[in-house]
């Protein structure tokens, strides 16, 4: 690897040397970097190694902003965070073998949550592929089930076309991760422009996502909506990916339709909007689950009826007709029977619905009912003067940031509390791992989000356990002076696991307590980041205000009550109307 | 229920892996799969025979396959007029004294003898998989030494017979 690296080491890296570079023939690595520029890529998250040395060398000569994370998993979650808030594809580079396999969790996460990513992995040279060469991994085989598509480049002249196709596939239709595996010898091979076959417009005969809704289906939907007495619009991330939030709000206001969202659909309509009845599902609001249960018409826009949303599917929305709008035809009818399927982009479908003026359903009574349920069954906790409650911390964060911050979370109890108590004002300010539930996601995702929106306040709400899965990325906060606010909801436990063990395993806390933790404040300080600690509720507001209003990265270790549970809850396998931990006020 | 599904794909490396991997991931039970080139360059066709529980699962299978970038077309041809064919090579123990008898018995299946040795005959039999099953049952008592089957390939007939037109002709009704 050193020998190869030194062969190209003499090229002038200064911008004035670039003219010269332009004239001589280019190798695959240089073409790759050029292709990224052509795609308008402004940031790449990655980690170098032997098989991508040429790519990194090309990047040195033709600079593209590259963020060196401390682990490849950090790079891919950062790219996901970037993609979520910018609504543009995230780009990742890793070397062959272990570099590539370290991406697997993030790729799976992006696949299940439909996050557009383009991922480049190095590969051993084509003449040794299949020989168990040093740092060889069959990343195409490994990622086939977890990518929307993948490519192994076999010919240097294919690079521009493949890159163009990859961005197209990742960022159209139902979005998702696309991986390009680049053997080392292809990155050094000389590119011949006359043999590159790059179409102006990508045309893939086997990939023609349908954006425009079918006219007749829209008419059927309109009729069903007009006739409904208890309609509910269920919103998933599809609305955010389609950038259809304005249309959504216009539509539901025009026809006075109550809205509930999935975990990933949060932010599609402001958290405090009068027609927003909150998140539905396992830890959703009582009113949201009740609305679904009593509804006579569910209008699902861009949600895939995940089991955490539906509970027992056979008893989901038992009285409702179902309209399902989704860009991915395979989602329609997969989990829940559908009466009116509409394969379309959420924005196009909403526009089509808005274009028709139709008779509004009479929802006044239904809305009155829901308002009453919302008032009687809010999220609740019982404050305690001895210990800080995690919910109180989230409420304070909400108060201090006015609901305007970008919030990233990890996975577990704190994630659910953040979803319940951090009411968001805008779209694209909520970054969480939904379908895969990937611990270790929150901190690197916050880094990517902050790079995407340097002027926005980014709050990363993490569990003490999940934080420790990717805490090495703290180094980036210091290195790039990213003013991310890392808030650790520290219950010295794998809280969500502990909760299930308390409720369903008679309190046998098998491997879910973490009595020994590092001193998180000192840990932050060792990374050159200011650390705070909150131990009482009396000091919480002052410390959080100071920390959040700081212009610098900070970490706040919030010592919270260990035995607090997330309620209400639909136990696994139960129906949405079988929630426990419900309290009437 | 058994369904015959054809999948037209771009002949890219990895496409077979994508299709079979998908079937495995989504827990579909493949009975047979065949692949080969078509009349168009760079386009291959797979014929799958799968066991499927219900219509919802069948719809999922078709949609999930269609979603693959390199998949051009997916057709469930089970309920059409189709030609289904499979080839089997069957090595049967056949001592010289029984050979004439055997050849007479298998005659209606029109197998070809593609190899012989002192005590073994290799038959090649082509036809609908049911016919091959019947052939195998027929020769089983003589002792099957080895059996290989290609799996089913299929094509849709040019003239489709409508179910409603053909039904009155049925002797059972
Ligand atoms: C990578 C990974 N491993 C295991 C799990 C299972 N799991 C879900 S929540 C959870 C506990 C998380 O604890 P912590 O990060 O402290 O958050 P808390 O629930 O306490 O808020 C675990 C282990 C997971 N989601 N992801």
UniProtKB/TrEMBL annotation, chain A:
Residues 1-20 are annotated as: Disordered. Its EC number is 2.2.1.6. Residues 410-558 form the Thiamine pyrophosphate enzyme TPP-binding domain. One of its GO terms (biological process) is isoleucine biosynthetic process. Pathway: Amino-acid biosynthesis; L-isoleucine biosynthesis; L-isoleucine from 2-oxobutanoate: step 1/4; Amino-acid biosynthesis; L-valine biosynthesis; L-valine from pyruvate: step 1/4. It comes from the Bacteria. One of its GO terms (molecular function) is flavin adenine dinucleotide binding. It catalyses: 2 pyruvate + H(+) = (2S)-2-acetolactate + CO2. Belongs to the TPP enzyme family. This is Acetolactate synthase. It comes from Ureibacillus terrenus.
From TrEMBL, chain B:
The keyword Isomerase does not apply. Dimer of large and small chains. Transmembrane segments: none annotated. It comes from the Bacteria. This is Acetolactate synthase small subunit. The keyword Transferase applies. It is an enzyme of class 2 (transferase). Keywords: Amino-acid biosynthesis, Branched-chain amino acid biosynthesis, Transferase. It catalyses: 2 pyruvate + H(+) = (2S)-2-acetolactate + CO2.
């Amino acid at each position: 690897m050193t020998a190869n690296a030194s062969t190209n080491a003499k090229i002038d890296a200064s911008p004035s040397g670039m003219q010269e570079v332009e004239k001589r023939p280019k190798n695959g690595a240089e073409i790759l970097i050029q292709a990224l520029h052509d795609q308008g890529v402004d940031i790449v998250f990655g980690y170098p190694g032997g098989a991508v040395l040429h790519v990194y060398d090309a990047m040195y000569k033709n600079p593209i902003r590259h963020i060196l994370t401390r682990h490849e998993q950090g790079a891919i979650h950062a790219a996901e965070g970037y993609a979520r808030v910018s609504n543009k594809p995230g780009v990742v580079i890793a070397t062959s073998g272990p570099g590539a396999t370290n991406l697997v969790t993030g790729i799976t996460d992006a696949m299940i949550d439909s996050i557009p990513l383009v991922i480049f992995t190095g590969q051993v040279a084509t003449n040794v592929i299949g020989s168990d060469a040093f740092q060889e991994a069959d990343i195409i085989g490994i990622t086939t089930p977890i990518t929307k598509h993948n490519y192994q480049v076999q010919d240097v002249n294919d690079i521009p076309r493949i890159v163009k196709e990859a961005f197209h596939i990742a960022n159209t239709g139902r979005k998702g991760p696309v991986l390009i595996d680049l053997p080392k010898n292809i990155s050094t091979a000389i590119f011949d422009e006359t043999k590159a076959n790059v179409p102006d417009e990508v045309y893939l005969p086997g990939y023609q996502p349908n954006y425009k809704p079918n006219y007749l289906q829209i008419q059927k939907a309109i009729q069903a909506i007009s006739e409904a007495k208890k309609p509910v619009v269920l919103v998933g991330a599809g609305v955010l990916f389609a950038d259809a939030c304005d249309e959504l709000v216009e539509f539901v206001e025009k026809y006075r339709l109550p809205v509930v969202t999935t975990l990933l659909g949060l932010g599609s309509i402001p958290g405090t909007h009068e027609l927003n009845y909150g998140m539905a599902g396992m830890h959703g609001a009582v009113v949201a689950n009740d609305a679904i249960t009593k509804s006579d018409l569910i209008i699902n826009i861009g949600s895939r009826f995940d089991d955490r949303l539906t509970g027992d599917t056979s008893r989901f929305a038992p009285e409702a007709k179902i309209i399902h709008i989704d860009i991915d035809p395979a989602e329609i009818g997969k989990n829940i029977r559908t009466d009116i399927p509409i394969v379309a982009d959420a924005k196009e479908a909403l526009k089509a619905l808005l274009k028709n003026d139709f008779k509004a359903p009479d929802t006044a009574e239904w809305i009155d009912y829901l308002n009453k349920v919302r008032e009687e069954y809010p999220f609740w906790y019982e404050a305690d003067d001895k210990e800080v409650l995690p919910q109180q911390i989230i409420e304070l964060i909400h108060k201090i940031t006015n609901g305007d911050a970008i919030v990233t979370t990890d996975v577990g109890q704190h994630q659910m509390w953040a979803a319940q108590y951090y009411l968001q004002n805008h779209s694209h300010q909520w970054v969480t791992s939904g379908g895969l539930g990937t611990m270790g996601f929150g901190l690197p995702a916050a880094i990517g989000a902050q790079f995407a929106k340097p002027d926005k306040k980014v709050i990363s709400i993490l569990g003490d356990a999940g934080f420790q899965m990717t805490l090495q990325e703290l180094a980036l906060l210091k290195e790039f002076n990213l003013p991310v606010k890392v808030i650790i909801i520290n219950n010295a436990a794998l809280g969500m696991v502990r909760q299930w063990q308390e409720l369903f395993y008679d309190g046998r806390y098998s491997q879910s307590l973490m009595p020994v933790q590092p001193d998180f404040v000192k840990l932050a300080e060792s990374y050159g980041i200011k650390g705070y600690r909150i131990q009482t509720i009396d000091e919480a507001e002052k410390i959080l205000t100071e920390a959040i209003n700081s212009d610098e990265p900070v970490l706040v270790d919030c010592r919270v009550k260990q035995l607090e549970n997330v309620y209400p809850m639909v136990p696994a396998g139960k129906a949405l109307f079988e929630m426990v931990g419900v309290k009437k006020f | 229920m058994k369904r015959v599904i054809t999948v037209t794909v771009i002949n890219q490396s990895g496409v077979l892996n994508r299709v079979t991997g998908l079937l495995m991931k989504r827990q579909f039970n493949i009975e047979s799969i065949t692949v080969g080139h078509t009349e168009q360059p760079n386009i291959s066709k797979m014929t799958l025979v799968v066991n499927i529980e219900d219509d919802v699962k069948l719809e999922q299978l078709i949609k999930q396959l269609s979603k693959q970038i390199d998949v051009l077309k997916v057709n469930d041809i089970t309920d059409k007029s189709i030609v289904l064919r499979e080839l089997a090579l069957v090595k049967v123990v056949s001592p010289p004294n029984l050979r004439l008898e055997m050849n007479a018995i298998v005659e209606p299946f029109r197998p070809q003898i593609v190899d012989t040795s002192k005590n073994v005959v290799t038959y090649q039999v082509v036809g609908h998989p049911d016919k091959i099953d019947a052939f195998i049952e027929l020769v089983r008592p003589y002792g099957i030494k080895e059996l290989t089957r290609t799996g089913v390939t299929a094509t849709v007939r040019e003239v489709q017979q409508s179910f409603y037109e053909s039904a009155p002709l049925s002797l059972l009704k």
